[in-house]
């Protein structure tokens, strides 16, 4: 029988087949007893059930752009451990990919819950053959399949896969999730798996007080201040009473750990009490899958981007719609009044009910003008400014010994702003820009212009245009009112605020370069990021303008890619052929391999830039002319030929 006839027969047979996944027994040592009472557990542990396991990641852990949606179970640093069905049900969905979850299985259970198993290395034979046939039918490495309950039924304890390191995994492990019927991500540890031992309370590194009103002060200044508490038993505290005023928000940097593992994990729940009254609670134990990106408003996003330190807010910022909070009318913010003393207590609880406590005191100070430190003498007036959410903070180093009023201009209108306080750096003036967007400020004859373009409201679609850029913010793009700042420099780098301003839903952006590329079919938009790297965004040309989708704000530039990918043969034999492939700019988009004109599956592993073949019929050797075509995102194609 010819190769193509064998392939056609196997595709038809395998796609029409059904079968169950066989259970495999595992000898296990007794698991330690649970440390606390939990909800009755309908599930078995998916890795080495009945023995102590270790986690490298927990539910709700802060990741760069999402909450971690499950638990990461260690697999002894290797691939190929049996993965067991957590409960009775059926395999309802399977996905093969080099990115994200990698090779992924969904199991739908009779109780309505769904468990997911990610970064898998391979599947049992019946399921593996089905997915391989689907790949050959679609002539694609990345495929996804959905099944009904009769095709791949499973019983609790059946081996449904083998652990791996596929997708966005940073090392061998199993990512395990529990979801409800509404696709909310539930904490698997809510069921109290005895395989995980946790007797270690959370560790508190730092906390911060963040001003939330124009009259707010922390130790005399309108500034976010961080403090490092000292541990005394399970309580963290500082020796001094802090001085503050106005409306404040508390932020905490903390981690959790499990017995026998050095990994730093996320803290499950936090509660804030002011003078014994609870004003805020959160529990990261039911995050909607489509709202995971809102982690960037749950934390102080600029701090994690600049310092790689995750401070969770114990107040709910505007635009945060996560259903994980219990809050008062001030959304967890608290007001400090002059002359009063406040006891601030925050309880941090992990999934196994271990608790650490942060406790400190604040004495209310006056927010009236004062000199916190004599200003450093200067020979000429200097004006600096920064934007803190909607507040404009202007610092003036003046030649005058007494602080003067500052004139703030909005078009033809001028407003006198009195100083709020004076420091070594100069006198500080505060203004809430929700009241109107200033274009410049003047003091002592020195004038500075501001780069503010517009006030963009959240919660509605909004179009902004200027001579070189159009931006359409979707209804759910912004978390809060945006003080928009745009620019195009001499190198045709377009700026929209900076990467410290995050979006929930992408914005549609059109830019008009001053110098058009010679070949627009090879030119696209790239995000310039923090350093020298460029991230491909693509875009569609219409005349002299190109439109693209921006998931984040920052710097953008049109670059041209005319260089085809690079292909290098790694090895070849009648059983398998493999290649290394790279691209210089826009990235690998597609590949196609044929042996004697017949399509051959090449599995892609982006972490190692490797393509590896897998035959549909393992009995037929690879033989003949091999042609590999690889294209990048701009359509540049490289062709590699060889013989087996």
TrEMBL record:
<protein>
    <recommendedName>
        <fullName>M23ase beta-sheet core domain-containing protein</fullName>
    </recommendedName>
</protein>
<dbReference type="InterPro" id="IPR011055">
    <property type="entry name" value="Dup_hybrid_motif"/>
</dbReference>
<dbReference type="InterPro" id="IPR050570">
    <property type="entry name" value="Cell_wall_metabolism_enzyme"/>
</dbReference>
<keyword id="KW-0732">Signal</keyword>
<dbReference type="InterPro" id="IPR016047">
    <property type="entry name" value="M23ase_b-sheet_dom"/>
</dbReference>
<dbReference type="Pfam" id="PF01551">
    <property type="entry name" value="Peptidase_M23"/>
</dbReference>
<dbReference type="GO" id="GO:0004222">
    <property type="term" value="F:metalloendopeptidase activity"/>
</dbReference>
<feature type="domain" description="M23ase beta-sheet core">
    <location>
        <begin position="67"/>
        <end position="123"/>
    </location>
</feature>
<feature type="signal peptide">
    <location>
        <begin position="1"/>
        <end position="23"/>
    </location>
</feature>
